[in-house]
Amino acid sequence: DQQVKQNSPSLSVQEGRISILNCDYTNSMFDYFLWYKKYPAEGPTFLISISSIKDKNEDGRFTVFLNKSAKHLSLHIVPSQPGDSAVYFCAASDTGANSKLTFGKGITLSVRP
Amino acid sequence: DAGVIQSPRHEVTEMGQEVTLRCKPISGHNSLFWYRQTMMRGLELLIYFNNNVPIDDSGMPEDRFSAKMPNASFSTLKIQPSEPRDSAVYFCASSRQLRTDTQYFGPGTRLTVL
Prior knowledge:
The complex is a heterodimer of chains A (about 110) and B (about 110). Chain A has strands spanning about 5, 10-15, 20-25, 30-40, 45-50, 55-60, 60-65, 70-75, 85-95, 100-105, 105-110. Chain A is an all-beta fold and about 110 residues long. In chain A, the strands form 2 sheets. In chain A, strands 2, 4, 5, 9, 10 and 11 form a 6-stranded mixed beta sheet that branches. A 5-stranded antiparallel beta sheet of chain A has the order 1-3-8-7-6, with no helix packed on it. Chain A is globular. Chain A starts with a strand and ends with a strand. Chain B is about 0% helix and about 55% strand. In chain B, the strands form 2 sheets. In chain B, strands 2, 4, 5, 6, 9, 10 and 11 form a 7-stranded mixed beta sheet that branches. The mean pLDDT of chain B is about 95. Classes of the chains: A mainly beta (about 110), B mainly beta (about 110). At the A-B interface, strand 4, strand 5 and strand 10 of A face strand 5 and strand 10 of B.
């Protein structure tokens, strides 16, 4: 059973426009959420995170929004650039001392020049 | 820092053969994770270690899979015997602490079992 769901496998946007990547989770114990970015033939790299005590975290062009009541988070990229084309993984963890990250299946973002 | 190092980068083997994947975590990192990426299941956590001790191996699919971490700078993931359905990209990641926000991933090993 997928506890972290990225239901859209791919997204294509025009350069300069906004990219919105969505993620849903089912485990109410999750209290920390992250986005990782992955280029082909490379490992995922950390992009941005958010704690459950916040509903928004911003880092440059990247903003993550968290809606705890809906168990939903989203990653906004503004403006989108061709170099943003990659697979984006949503991940979550809970407060346990031995907590681990649970990843979604990923979304492939293509930014068209 | 060289980052997380994995070897080999590519492995092609025949069904029934033993496969050993290797990982060197970032120096000073206390936690190490093995993941598998497939189209069907995405990125799955197989097992993770803290201070060289296995904490949770519930993600290991079968007894054919085993992992060791004999010291702080080296870990192996072994599949014996390998099967075609084991074909995937296997990632190793490390972090300073178990409960930390950033895991640093290696480049992965692409395993193909014929």
